Here is the input.
Amino acid sequence: MTEATGRKGLRRGVLIVDFGTQYCQLIARRVREHGVFSHITTPAGAVAQVEAGGYGAIILSGGPRSVYEADAPVLDPAVLDRGLPVLGICYGMQWLSRALGGEVVPATGETSREYGHAELSLNSTPGPVFDRVAGPTQVWMSHGDEVATLPEGFVVGASTPTCPNAAAYDASRRIAMLQFHPEVTHTVEGQTILRNFLFDVAQLEADWSPGSIVEETVAALREQIGTGEVVLGLSGGVDSSVAAMLIHRAIGDRLHCVFVDNGLLRAGERASVEGLFQRNFEMDVCVVDASERFLEDLAGVTNPEKKRHLIGHRFVDVFREAASRYEDARFLGQGTLYPDVIESVAAHGGATSVIKSHHNVGGLPEDLGMELVEPLRQLFKDEVRVIGRSMDMPAEVIDRQPFPGPGLAVRIVGEITRERCELLRDADRIITTEIEAAGCSAGLWQYFGVLLPTVQSVGVMGDARTYENPVVLRAVTSADAMTADWAFLPEDLLRRISNRIINEVRGVNRVVLDITSKPPGTIEWE
Ligand code: XMP
Here is the structure.
């Protein structure tokens, strides 16, 4: 499924145009929660996407800019030419109003700025997006500008005390505009409003289900791969395993999985993944020990992005080498997810920035020489888990905690050496074992250790002074890794972990707890 053509000929979804809002992912999720496929695009890519077909409606997101600012995102009004139903949210409403001949006024004082909760009153004919919504109702506002004069054809549907045109609708063009944010939970009837837009206004169908995704994906894979062979980097985690399963369904034993021991794995990982796949799957899996090469590449490197790029390149080398053993392995399979893509590329014309280069996205060389096969590129991890379960994959795979492709390299802050890997592996094993033994793992997204660099600290052990490394304990809850909360672990569990690490892991004399959420932090330290 490529971005430009992926939906052609398939069921109709929603194209979300991202004007730079922090809520864009949330809009996508909300739409999918209603069983409708959604895809986010940049303003620059929107017209091509609409023309490629496959979309039954457009949502224009909010954004941090004013339509009057010189660097406001530019969207070609031709996006409206196909006459698709449109929902404009916040900046999306302001862009629509301006594009269609209305008037947007900048904030000039208390009356036009509105942030936080607001009470929305509905007019007598508020339009179909307010069906089954009783006014007044609480909505979430976050805007400086507002629409002073609606474009011709629009009827005002709802107001707040400071925003007379808080919602408007043009029945003939099927365009709805909302100054508030229906996607956030603070807007009490937000899901009803979105539902009304999707099913009553746009007449979409709720056909985005695990079964349909598997069917569609397998068909698209067969079309893409033809008679070729695929080499897939298998880590044993849920993403690459589900990707492998889908590709295997599509092309059977023309799929060759490669498990790379890069020297950056967790304790016992290689043996456990080998066993897991032998027991559960009839796939061709080979193990390549490339640990020497990876660790040599990383010697003396401390910059996180450099580490990621070196690792990405070395992975590609190993995959190419593996591919050369087969007759027609022109394809490289990967378990890339939607958040990996979004966080690795400044996808929105500068409005968002690269957070970190996920090795399977940002670290690929331009002359890869293989075509990518990424069946999960448009999915969130929780959706991938649902798909995996629908294909009867074992819980051992589906519920495995995520482990980043670059492995311990992004959990060893500073220089990576074999010794430091060993040290972190030992500490991490204690963290994992204790959390799982205490029955606390089920509610956690990830739990692991991080080794800090030269920040040694003074301690005392057995009456002697120590001057050694701290290990960070990181445990988070999350739904999709886009946001995360640090987890509150029981005190006795924390005490056991701390005691065991300090007693059993030579070179560590302090254990600290990371209590940072995402944002502002990220889950991994690098
Ligand atoms: P961050 O640290 O960006 O991580 O909050 C979000 C999720 O992604 C995982 N992660 C990666 N996964 N390749 C991967 O396959 C990578 O390069 C990578 N970096 C981070 C991380 O473990 C978390 O679940």
Q: What stands out?
A: The pocket of xanthosine-5'-monophosphate is lined by residues 343, 356, 358-359, 402, 404-406, 446, 481, 518, 522-524 (CB under 6 Å). The chain has a mean pLDDT of 89. The chain has 14 helices and 21 strands.
